[in-house]
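Weekly modeling sync, notes
Attendees: S.R. (lead), two postdocs, one rotation student

Agenda item 3: backlog of single-chain predictions. S.R. asked that every request posted to the team notebook include the full sequence so nobody has to chase files. The rotation student volunteered to paste the first one in as an example of the format we agreed on. Action items at the bottom.

Example entry:
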Amino acid sequence: MPNQSISRTDAEAIIQEQVIPTVLQDAPKQSVVMQLGRKLPNMTSNQTRIRVLDLLPMAYWVHGDTGFKRTSKQAWDNVFIDAEELAVIVPISEAVLEDADFDIFGEVTPKVIEAISAAVDAAILFGVNKPANWPADIVTRARQAGNNVAVGSNPNYYDLIMGENGVIAKVEDSGRMVTGVLSAMGMRAKLRGIKDDAGHPIYVSDMKGATPYALDGSPMFFPQNGSFATSIAQLVAGDFSQMVYSIRKDITVKILDQGVIQDPDTKEIVYNLAQQDMIALRVVFRMGWALPNPATRMDGDRVTVPFAYLEPASAMTDYSLTFTVTDSNSAAVADAIVEIDGARVKTNSSGVAVFHLRNGSYKYKVKKGSVSVTGTKAISSSNATQAVTLA
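Predicted structure, as returned to the notebook:
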């Protein structure tokens, strides 16, 4: 009789494989924008008002011993922070929870919080899915101020970022200093490729040690929560201390075991928790933010912003919205302030102010002195114009 033994195949049904009692996943990534920005006291209602310096007093030389002294004034403006809600519901069968050998909700909750952080960063930086009541995003504000740097066909990233007309210089032109830089992960390779005249890498001092990424002494961050929109910008730099936010309701987690869950679009009932023996994890977060941009001696009209960005190789598509402001006699009104969602542009000598916007509906305000006009204008994949009369 031939030699026989029990093989692995024969005993496969009774061999128990080892199961590691953890779930392999990346550590949750928190909001980088909220880390860099300035946190205000928590909101006590759905809207908070910030008083912002809008007009600076001036001083004048007095000519001669009996010259007349001139008068001046100072003025303030209101900037509002509107609280908006981020929320998600994760339903799961009770039977699945009972049969699982690890804490499913304990694994889900950190990733839901990470998703909230990513949504906040994307909305504030790039306007991605931003609530209608929130102000224009940082990149849009920088675009109106002319603080965008085009890459071109043969880019020199050192000059584009650090040069006289680079990203950092545009922030400094507004009278602010860069306190932080956010960039897509792909920028690391571009920075490593920058070399001096002798061919030595600028951003690597020791090939065997960690490379600290900083620009002109300001820390550089590479968000890993999926919020950085590479189709809109490669790099965003600015004085993040000027970006303020306030929390109306901190992240709260609640377990639901009663009620129904409806489809937000069709309103059809998707789950009946009690009838289907299900429970649901509900996570809610409410916050608001603003870029007050108070008047400074270098920007008395508040038309610049302390942020700038480097465009991608293929620049984001936007459309011009041209305002033509005249008085009741059809004469051009120069130096009127046109404001859209917090972004300001001053009219030129012909009474013209141009914005560069993506598709959407925008509320505008045109003012000069004590006279102002408000309205709404939509952008739909084409350039647009808007005539305004200041009576």
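Discussion: group reviewed the output briefly. The chain has seven helices and 21 strands.
Action items: rotation student to repeat for the remaining queue; S.R. to check formatting next week.
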